[in-house]
Amino acid sequence: MTADLVAKWEEFLRSRYWDDLLELADSYPDERSLVVKFPDLDRYDPEFAEELLERPEQVLEAAQAALLQLDLPMDVYMDRAHVRIAELPRHYKTRELRSDHIGKLIAIEGLVRTATEVRPKIVSAAFQCQRCGYTFFKEQTGNKFDDQNLKCQNQACDRGGPFKLILAQSKFVDAQKIRVQESPEDLRGGEQPQTLDVELEDDLAGQIFPGDRVIVNGVLKSFQRSSPQQGKSNYFDLFHKGIYVEMKEQEFEEIEISPEDEKLILEMSRDPDIYDHVTKSIAPSIFGYDDVKEALGLQLVSGFEKHLPDGARIRGDIHILLVGDPGIAKSQLLRYMTKISPRGIYTSGKSSTSAGLTATAVKDELGDGRWTIEAGALVLADKGIAAVDEMDKMDNEDKSALHEAMEQQTISVAKAGVMATLKSRCSLLAAANPKLGRFDKYEPIAPQINLTPALMSRFDLIFVLTDDPDTKRDSAIAEHILKSNFAGELSTQISWNPKISQEDIDNAMTVIKPVIDPELLRKYVAYARKNIFPTLTDEAKEHFLKYYVGLRSQGQDSNKPVPVTARQLEALIRLGEASARLRLSDKVTIEDAKRVVKILESCLRKVGVDPETGFLDADIIASGTTKSTRDRTKSVMDIIRDISKENKGPAPKEDVLDRAEELGIERAKAEEIIDRMRRDGDVFEPRPGMLKLP
Q1: What integer pLDDT is reported at residue 250 of this predicted model?
Q2: Is the residue at 427 inside a domain?
Q3: Residue 330 to residues 166, 189, 199, 381: CA-CA distances in angstroms?
Q4: d(Cα 238, Cα 595) in Å, to the nearest integer?
Q5: Which of 18, 433, 558, 654 is a good FRET partner for 50, with 20 to 30 A between their CA atoms?
Q6: CA–CA dist 278, 521 (Å, integer)
């Protein structure tokens, strides 16, 4: 540090940041940071700004000294104040860091994967000589406590110890470590995100949580690897000494939309075929499924979060479940959505635990053996799409961990004394297979899916995709697959086969080319989510009301099931908002309402209909059992109870089956009900062939 540097800082702060200095002095010590924007410094003195980037520690030390030397109009000594540098000219990914960057002031961009607790860190240790009683201080600048080669600073003593650490006189600062991971949207296909550990001190500590998207400005440092077996290594690891953290609060901020892009986006929104264009731009290599793709287009933009005066919150993100026979491209749809979404995370339920999907507290070297919070897929996909394939393969305990994440869109962690609540404001797109491999079309669909009713009821739309032989459709699918493969073959061969021209490839690619370029679609979605917050028109409200009340009225008869619940009405509102957003409209019109009612009705007719009665039954999803099955179960229980009273003991199974047949219950159905009741503990056999209620 030189007097020249201190003088430059004093002059700069007086001329450009005097009002900010007065505000800091007025609120000190509650506020301890003076944030200086790098562009301001660069305009003031480009050479000085460049010196800050090249020699940050010396230049920032001079800034601290300048703060103390400035003659302020109030009597305050800001010895704990800091100069923080914001808006650095370039942001780096972890994979771009090289040895040339060590010791330089750089900005690292990414999301916080793990964060430790805030703990005191000693920065100036007070040692007392046990021979003469003199106390002196030793600055602690490294990562390890330095109490080696100490010498008493009392000239009359001048001995080498012993010394005692005096904690009461030592100086501490709050400290926290975070692990910043590259953002998933910045990765190319197949790349694994790299991480960088960051140290934060004083008023920066405790402000960052797992799942936050941040830009950390700081000094890149290195430390030597070592192990007890091999000693010191030639290789060094990197870490970041953070001096300022910029939060990326704005949704989809990382997608830059130029004025030309905005003009094109607004022009696209006025096209009456925008829904069809978006539908055909989602996974064009997959034939058909236009209804599913239309719903996925709505999921991309979703509705928007609402906060009510009483503190209640209504989610805006749309959750979709695709369940169907194997080999019908469910996984491909999921992967495509995570690629096209501005933020997307793909994971498989088969290899995912509740901790990997939500969050957990872990012990690792980042926290020096302490417990730290580690974010899972749903937290990392905050404000994006989380795709979970093979959800039916997850353990039941892991599935139950999704309940809070889907409805409240938060994840609570309470483990080993660590309590935290993380945000998971993402749309969930899940895929599952039927329990027995393929669907039985003569049985209710919902009980054939290995997901709990509580979990299924949280999905706004459930699409049932069956692989039924159909000559016309099968021919169209086969032709599409052959054309897609041919286009891929030509694209691969063009580099070495001179007979293939670019025109040949372009002609072949028309079958799988999206109507809207994926990058433009990402920008379109980002623009819609950032700028469009539609409201329901009176006509749309009336249409939703008539549909909902009309269906509910069908369940007023005690012999009929309840067709829909309030959850379906909330789903309609979210879908309606998404429909308006997709055409960049601030009004949800009657056309939007009709469109989304048609989509929801299509889903309910496949998954929520009792095949025996043909009626919509909300309980199929909510409880996994149809009303007709519940009624039969109650009848069988009444029969067992009546026969037990008559016999003053257990009821013979054959008598129960005979009486059930008299009531119109098929014998096979009655046996199935008895078996299920026995599994659930509602009836038991004290001896073979005899039934008794608990």
Answers
A1: 44
A2: yes
A3: 64, 19, 42, 20
A4: 54
A5: 18
A6: 8
Compute the residue count for the chain. 694
The two structure tokens encoding residue 173? 């600062």
Contact 604, 564 (CB under 8 A): yes
CB 323 within 8 A of CB 439: no
C-beta of residue 354 within 8 angstroms of C-beta of residue 401? yes
- What gap in Å lies between CA 211 and CA 379, rounded to an integer? 5
CA triple 303-307-312, angle to 5 deg:
115
> Residue with structure tokens 């008598």?
655
CATH number at residue 82: 3.30.1640.10
Whether 489 is covered by a domain: the verdict is no
Number of domains the chain is built from: 4
Copy the structure tokens of residue 296: 């996925």
Tokens of 193: 């995100």
> How many CB atoms are closer than 10 A to CB 454?
17
**What does R_g of the chain's alpha carbons equal in angstroms?**
33
Q: Are residues 218 and 350 in the same domain?
A: no
CB 367 within 8 A of CB 382: no
pLDDT tens for residues 200-235? 888 888 888 777 788 899 988 888 777 666 777 777
Token pair for residue 310?
């009483």
Helix (H) or strand (E) holding 220, with range, is strand 213-227
| Same domain (yes/no): 68, 113 | no
Contacts (Cβ under 8 Å, ≥6 apart) of 690: 649, 650, 651, 652, 653
Instruction: Assess whether pLDDT exceeds 60 at residue 191.
Output: yes
Helices 290-301 and 518-531, packing angle to 10 deg: 50
For 5-51, write each residue's pLDDT tens digit.
888 888 888 888 888 888 888 888 788 888 888 888 888 888 888 88
Is residue 334 domain-shared with residue 276, that is, in the same domain? Answer: yes
Going along 459-534, which residue ranges are E strands? 461-465
Instruction: Confirm whether 516 is domain-assigned.
Output: no
- Among residues 414, 448, 467, the one where a domain terminates is 467
Give me the CATH number covering residue 673.
1.10.10.10
Residue 631 domain boundaries: 627-691
Domain assignment present for residue 524? The answer is no
> In the structure encoding, which two tokens stand for residue 155, read together?
């000239």
What value, to the nearest 5°, has the Cα angle with vertex 509 and ends 503 and 510?
A: 100
| Secondary structure (3-state) at 178 | strand
pLDDT category at 560 given cuts 50, 70, 90 is: very low
Q: Which residues are within 8 A (CB) of 341 and not within 5 positions of it... i.e. 6 or more apart?
A: 300, 384, 385, 522, 525
* DSSP-assigned letter for residue 141: -
pTM over 0.70: no
Whole-number Å distance between alpha carbons of 99 and 684: 72
Whole-number pLDDT of residue 578: 92
